[in-house]
Every structure is written in C-alpha cells, then in structure tokens.
Amino acid sequence: GENVEQHPSTLSVQEGDSAVIKCTYSDSASNYFPWYKQELGKGPQLIIDIRSNVGEKKDQRIAVTLNKTAKHFSLHITETQPEDSAVYFCAPGGSNFGNEKLTFGTGTRLTIIP
Amino acid sequence: DGGITQSPKYLFRKEGQNVTLSCEQNLNHDAMYWYRQDPGQGLRLIYYSQIVNDFQKGDIAEGYSVSREKKESFPLTVTSAQKNPTAFYLCASSLGQRQEPQHFGDGTRLSIL
C-alpha cells in the first residue's frame, strides 16, 4: 500500500508570510495529488489538487508543486491570513483504475500569528 | 445545494451496543467512503463503495459493517466487536473515477458512555 509522510506536523508563521508543507509518497503509480484543509469540528475541504501530467498549479494565494521523480508534492500558501489557520492533509492516490482511493497523511497544524 | 449530510453530529453508545451512523449525498456520486479520524491523526479508510449493492473493506474494517442499497445512502454500523469505537467518523463521496476529488460531510463524533 501507499506510505505517506507529511512534514512538518506543526507550523507557525507570521501573518503575511508564506507557509510550505511537504508530502512524500511511496507508490510511483499515484497520479492524483490533492490537498485538504480541515477546520475544527468540520470535514476536510479540498483546496487544490494536481494531476500527474502537470508540475505546478496555482489558485490565488495557494499553489501545489509536484516532483514525480522524487515522489513528493508541496503546498504553498503566500500572504497568509488568520483564516488560513487549520489542519492541512495531503492525500495522494488514483493509482488503481476505476478506484479513487486516497491515502491521507497525518496532517500539518498551521497557525497564523497575527 | 448539493452536499453530504452526516447525522447525528454527536452520538453516544453504551458498551455492547451496535450503533448506525447515517450518510446521505445528493451529488449524484457513484462512490462513497467511510473514514475514521483519531485525535492528531490522519484519516483511515474503513469501507468504500464504488457502486450500489457493492462495497469493499478498507484498511480498518474489523468491527464495522456497511450497506449500499441506494446510490444516495451509505450507512455505517459500529458493532460491539469494535473495541475502541470512540472517534470522529467522516463520510465522503466522489464520481468514482480516477483523479477526481472526494467531498466530505462534517462528521459524526462517537463516544462511549
């Protein structure tokens, strides 16, 4: 099965600075790389995803970069704001035909310091 | 609005009892999933279903059962065989195709009295 490691487990940044979270996976057949944001007491929400034919994707202040050779992908948040404080999960998957199984990392708790 | 509804939000169970968690979606998704989340940990897959009347075990299926009689519904039963049932349970759905995202409900927190 897929082994997923996410670093760091906690991250504190000053408001306005950038945050980067890295996810390393083991299954070279994985071809779908989403990032989810989970707020307290809520379910995870998809914030950005990337497919294996693309190396980078950006959506306003959020970007994801993918290095398939090294089997890792990263979440980049620029100009951080207090509402960015949450737990973030990577969940690589998509390696089995017709099956959208994802394997979740253990999460990164991001705290934005005002 | 389309989405996934989990109920109840909080659930209490006495030891030795079975309890069923509800999950309904109106997104017309084929695939549905149940995850368990423990404090400070990621999500672990319990069961998933790619189509009505079919489902497969995930990584931690022991002590749980599911049914998929309707496309919209995927209830999870936590049986008395589950020795450590206290957790946050999350239901998700997706189109069921590769490279498509899963959409989550807001979870049910189960506690043992």
What is the structure about, briefly put?
The complex is a heterodimer of chains A (114) and B (113). With 114 residues, chain A is mostly beta strands. Chain A has strands at 4-7, 10-14, 19-25, 32-38, 45-51, 56-59, 62-67, 72-77, 86-90, 108-113.
How would you characterize the overall build of this protein?
The complex is a heterodimer of chains A (114) and B (113). Chain A is mainly beta and 114 residues long. Chain A has no helices and 10 strands. In chain A, strands 1-3-8-7-6 form a 5-stranded antiparallel beta sheet, with no helix packed on it. A 5-stranded mixed beta sheet of chain A has the order 2-10-9-4-5, with no helix packed on it. The model of chain A has no long low-confidence stretch (mean pLDDT 92). Chain B has strands at residues 4-7, 10-13, 19-25, 31-37, 43-51, 54-57, 64-66, 76-78, 87-94, 103-104, 108-112. In chain B, the strands form 2 sheets. In chain B, strands 2, 4, 5, 6, 9, 10 and 11 form a 7-stranded mixed beta sheet that branches. In chain B, strands 1-3-8-7 form a 4-stranded antiparallel beta sheet, with no helix packed on it. Chain B starts with a strand and ends with a strand. The model of chain B has no long low-confidence stretch (mean pLDDT 92). Chains A and B meet through strand 4 and strand 5 of A and strand 5, strand 9 and strand 10 of B.
